[in-house]
What does this fold into?
Amino acid sequence: MLSEQFEAVDFAAVLEQFASRAYSAKTAEKIRSARPSTNLMQIRLDLDRADEAARYLQAGGGLSLGGFTDITRLVLAAKKGMSLLPSELLEVSFFLGACAAAVNAFDPQTNPLLHEVASTLTPLKGLAKKIDDCIDLSGQVRMDATPTLRNLDRKLTAAKADLSAAARRFIKSHGDSLVDSVSVSSGGRVCVLMKAADKYKYGGMVHGLSQSGAACYVEPDALVSLNNETAQLEMEIENEKKKICMELSGQIRCEATALLANDETLEILDLALAKGSWMLAHDGCIPLLHTGSHSLRLEHAIHPLLDQKTAVANRYTLSDAKSCLMITGSNMGGKTVTLKTIGLFLLLAHSGFPISAHEAMLPVYNQFFFDIGDGQSIEQNLSTFSGHARKLGEIVRNADSDTFVLLDEIGSGTDPQEGAALAQAVLETLIQAGSTILTSTHYSEVKTFGTTNRKIQVGSVEFDPETLKPTYRYLEGVSGSSCAFPIARQLGLPETVLARAEAIKEENASESDRQLEILEQKQAALQKQKDRFDALVANAHDLQRKADHDRQKWAEMKARLDDDYQRQLDDMLFEKKEEARKIIRDLKKQTHSMNHEQIEQMGKLDGLNTGPKGSSNAAAQEEKPHEFKAGDYVRITTLNNHGEVQSVRKGKAVVVVNGRRVNVSVDQLVLMKRPKVEKAAAKARPERSFKAFPMELNLIGMRVEEGIRTLDHYIDQAVYHNVKNVRIIHGMGTGALRKAVWEDLRKHPNVKNLSAGGPSDGGLGATLVELK
It folds into this structure.
């Protein structure tokens, strides 16, 4: 396949988008050099890895391969016995850090393919530690890398201190002969700036003259031995550093095989993550490839170089019965973009890359041919038509049933009648060869041929005659007109010229052309009616969904209010019974001052408080009181209910009754046998069963509308269950779902505070919600 064929459908430009998401320059270059393959097994493996990477990133996976660089040349240099520089050793350390991060990054259950790749990594933690112990983050050898280096560094520090002190003493003692009262450095040796006349007065060495010649850089005898000692120590330190680098390089040489294997493994992971990241950013999908059929289907397809927020998404289909897709319509309406989109998606899929569509089912081809552009060549002395004819000849000679052919404006560049006849003949030949064809045309004769041939699926790009602008919508089964006159009118061509052109067209038009134009007008009108009907249906569905959601929301709110009301009634009844019991206790204390009728009435009141079985407190008091403890099963006499004692303290007990905790006095409790619950009876109970309320909600994989509906229901349930803190998991993706979640939560009356998740809570892929 020629390189210009890739350029014709923006293949290189889209690969550059993938390359920009790779960590390593080596991976980016591999992406740029990607080409379609005929190895279907390898293609599917690459696509499956990309799919796993996208799901890993969408779930908040945080693997970073920032330390992954191409270390091949460094390892090969070490294998040859060369000593690596400290900065190069640091690069190897960063590489090993990326290996250590990747080796356990993927779960074998959710990401089996990536886990399988990462599990082959050899972390080489020992080598990484040795390099880190000897090389700091600035790419220099640490001065404490070895005991020898530490000792030399201490000696050098002391020697420099002695040298500095000696220089100060000399300057103080011989100030009359000096030009400056500070020491200077020349060639790495400490000197003094002395008057030219006295330069030999104190022995030593003269290192140079000042620009004026009035002063000299002199190293007197008093500083020579100290300078020599300092220089000797510095040389020993450099030798020790070289020795350390040589030893580390030798260890890299020993691990060369593992390092090179790790480099290849990280490249596979880097490539998969770049593809997954691109797929999420473009709301794309993994194409499904199949053999032995021309069936092609693309849902919500958008060319990746267009603005994903404003571009119009389209649906394209082909089948065995319709193996040729002929696109018609206005100039500047998007025909060429449609051709490029489908051709590009096929190239990406055959190269193992995801595409920017929601769903995709594509055939597998062995060869591709594209004819887009005018085909002119000054070097080859080719005109527009000559360039097209040369490409068409090559295509017709080589096309077969495993060939995809893309032809833009077939038959253009020559006499319209001859060009239309040539286009028809080429299409018939390619259809007979069994190829899959994607073409566009303005010729009425070619459009007529397309509408009558059973193997051709005719479609068009929509043009709005009212606004005189293209909508960029693809209409399947609808033949579109070129709209040359409306476009020319909009661009300022005089009305007189347009009127004359329309008259000439009418004079020269054949009956088939007129009928085709009438058909196109009727199709356009019918399509408008269909669009209005679809809009009404969609609006009705939206209203129905909203009504169902509101109905469910109000039903849940009613149930919650009923439960709250019942709970309040239970609390009020308990409080009143407690008040009545207190009154009874007070009256008992006053029995000595009561008359006979008062005592009789108090006994009746006490009997009501005792319970339906008429058990007497006096009889109970005759028995030895039971010391209640946690775990006892009791009946509460004042409530005529029973439950389990949770705790007892200072004469008060906390009893769990029907899932609610009740505070009562221990003298209101009667020990009873724990009732047996029959399983069959439990199933037959019509009461609602309660489950533990989940503290987090996972919205990953949902569309925005579905996710917000689920979120509202979840928040209402959280408020009902008195939950104060929850976590909403929405993933990173394109950011659309996360933005919608935040906007919805900010408007919710029961939400008190929002914050992004921390490193252990999912990061930006999750939102922490505090409820009122």
In short: The chain has a mean pLDDT of 82. The chain has five domains: 3-124+255-281, 147-237, 288-483, 546-678, 696-771.
